[in-house]
């Protein structure tokens, strides 16, 4: 291109350089701000649709029609949705993006993850419910059984099968609880301890939520097997939780004496 200005003089040369720079600048501005935007639809935006709950079988047509792409970012589990449905997305629904933008999605797993059964027995009902929730488990039916402790968890089960701590179950499972009603049996039959050795008698008394009362020794119990010969209350007599059982003990085979030494109490 021949410039109309003479470049023979320094002034003319300078003017020519400035003209060339101006033309280049105008051409650049025209290309980026007029031609390129019109050619690429620059400035047009697409509203990101809500993908939550859509099955993966339908996602291709759903996004392709909107000139968008997707990529599975991760997976998790929710019992509220069917397997292979979309749980989360980024950008969020309603966001404005350019055509061809990639939408990152999280899908629902086919199989739920498993969690160990927490320790719930001997916890209060309220505490057990909090533990179940923190482990993403659901409390199911509550059944009350006689117990002196109100709302104390006695048993844990699922579909009628008793569960033990550490058993693996699906996350989101429903757990049934058996809890105490706070009443229990107010009266019950005293255990039969006669002819039982002393150590077993102690074990039975304490295991029956009773107390060991006065122990009376009859005869010489050194170097002999000691058994219970009498008790009070008598076997089968009505007692209450916490009542004391008095025992009479003697060497095995002891028949007693008439007018002999006084019995020793311990």
| Helix run count | 4
Number of strands: 17
The dominant shape is rod-shaped
Q: Write the element-wise H/E pattern from the N-terminal end onward.
A: HEHEEEEEHEEEEEEHEEEEE
Low-confidence stretches: 39-43, 257-265
Q: How would you classify the helix and strand content by structural class?
A: alpha+beta
The oligomeric state of the chains shown is single chain
Radius of gyration: 44 Å
Task: Indicate the mean pLDDT.
Answer: 82
Major sheet:
4 strands, mixed
The percentage helix is: 10-25%
What fraction strand?
Answer: 25-35%
Major sheet strand order: 7-11-8-9
- What is the CA-CA span between the terminal residues? 129 Å
Could you describe the 3D structure shown?
- The chain has 266 residues and is of the alpha+beta class.
- Helix content is 23%, strand content 32%.
- The strands form 6 sheets. The chain has a 4-stranded mixed beta sheet, with helices on one face.
- The radius of gyration is 44 Å and the shape is rod-shaped.
Give a brief rundown of this model.
Helices cover 23% and strands 32% of the residues. The protein is α+β, with helices and mostly antiparallel strands and 266 residues long.
